[in-house]
Amino acid sequence: MNKTSTARGRQKIATVGTDEKRERILQVAEQLFFVQGYAKTTMEQIVGELGVTKPFVYYYFKNKLEIFETLSWRPTLACLTAMDFPEDDARAAHEKIIEGIQRLIRSTIAHYPSAFFGYREPQVYSAAYLRKQNKLAKQFYDRLCVLLEQGRRDGMLDFNETRITALAACSLPGFMYTWYRPDGRLNQEQMVQELATLSLRVLGLQLLAESGTKV
Question: What is the pLDDT of residue 175?
Answer without folding.
Answer: 84
